[in-house]
Amino acid sequence: MSTDAGTIVTDVPARLDRIPWSRFHWRIIIGLGTVWILDGLEVTIVGAIAPRMTEPGSGIDLTSGDVGIAAALYVAGACLGALFFGHLTDRFGRKKLFMATLVLYMLATVATAFATEVWMFFLFRALTGFGIGGEYSAINSAIDELIPARNRGRVDLAINGSFWVGAALGGLVSLFLLDDGVFATDLGWRLAFGLGAILSLAILLVRRHVPESPRWLFIHGREQEAERIVDEIERQVAAETSRELPRPEGTIAIRQRDVIPFREIARVAVRDYPTRTALGLALFIGQAFMYNAVTFDLGTILHDFFDVASGSGASSGGAYSPPSATCTSCAVM
Questions:
Q1: How far apart are CA 184 and CA 166, in angstroms?
Q2: CA distances from 166 to 237, 248, 315 (A)
Q3: Is 281 helix (H, G, I), strand (E, B) or coil?
Q4: Among 92, 159, 180, 226, which one has the highest count of C-beta atoms within 10 angstroms of its own C-beta?
Q5: Which residue, 205, 204, 248, is CA-closest to 230?
């Protein structure tokens, strides 16, 4: 249940929005936005290497049906992870959660590489999806709250569109890893999962320097900490640009609270924005379920019904991930 902590008047959103584009914003994009490249790499590699894991000598006894179940568990994990971590993100902050979700993804991906039983593969794929779903909620909230309003739409579009950069990279890498002349049948697919962990570790190192969202801080009664973070951002940008920043325009009144419950979010979505909610659900169902139903199994379909060798379908395509969870506090401020 939400608890009011008081009402404040702040100019922090105006101060953040009037900051010119700088290295700080590029750090946000690299530290947070590159996870969509990671997601594209992940799901494309899985779709491409699936036929190899159904072959004798792969080191894991999977069937084509098992591949479909694993894909369903991944998507279900992503949906549940977005809801679960979305709630925790609003309660405990963006930074704690976007660090925790990336670590979960990294550990689950590494564990998948060492799976030897079908149940292990199912479990680790579900946990990988759970971590990716958490990334959706924590990352989009943080990006929307740290990027100036004038750039927010284009940045969101570019970042989410970078999924296909990872998809293309995943297809190319899979062709190499599935080459029997280079890697053994039971090794190449395991290395494919390890690549995701290596990239996520690099992202984690950059992400350490991304600050907590000032918008989240002042909503949760930590306005002094929010002021300190914005002061530091302004100092860095002023030093980089060698000119004084323009004066912020306008303030807003904020009713502080500990958490926004799901029932309030649902009530606002259905009552105030029914058309947008219906459109969002339609896109979500089409992208997360219908599209993935085809592309996750595309490699095994080509292998089982058209006799395409497992190393030949590596670039056949990737799956698109569920849309990012909507920020449940102040992304639009």
A1: 24
A2: 31, 38, 12
A3: helix
A4: 226
A5: 248
Write the pLDDT tens digit of every residue in 70-100.
Answer: 888 988 998 899 889 988 988 898 888 888 9
Distance of alpha carbon 62 from alpha carbon 56, whole angstroms: 9
pLDDT digits (tens, 9 = 90+) for 215-236: 999 988 899 999 999 999 999 9
Q: Cβ atoms within 10 A of the Cβ of 183, count?
A: 18
What's the pTM value of the predicted model, to 2 decimals? Answer: 0.80
Separation of alpha carbons 185 and 192, rounded Å? 12
Q: Tokens for 226?
A: 């929010």
Report which of 160, 192, 183, 159 is spatially closest to residue 41, judged by C-alpha positions: 192
The token pair that represents 255 in the structure block? 């009713």
pLDDT (tens digit, 9 = 90+) per residue, 308-321? 665 554 444 444 44
User: Are 281 and 309 within 8 A, CB to CB?
Assistant: no
CA distance 71 to 53: 14
DSSP string, 38-95: HHHHHHHHHHHHHHHHTSTTSSS---HHHHHHHHHHHHHHHHHHHHHHHHHHHHH-HH
What amino acid occupies position 134? G
Q: Give the DSSP per-residue string, 112-147.
A: HHT--SHHHHHHHHHHHHHHHHHHHHHHHHHHHHHS
**Token output for 259:** 């958490």
Give the pair of three-digit tokens for residue 53.
């894991």
pLDDT range class, residue 128, cuts 50, 70, 90? very high
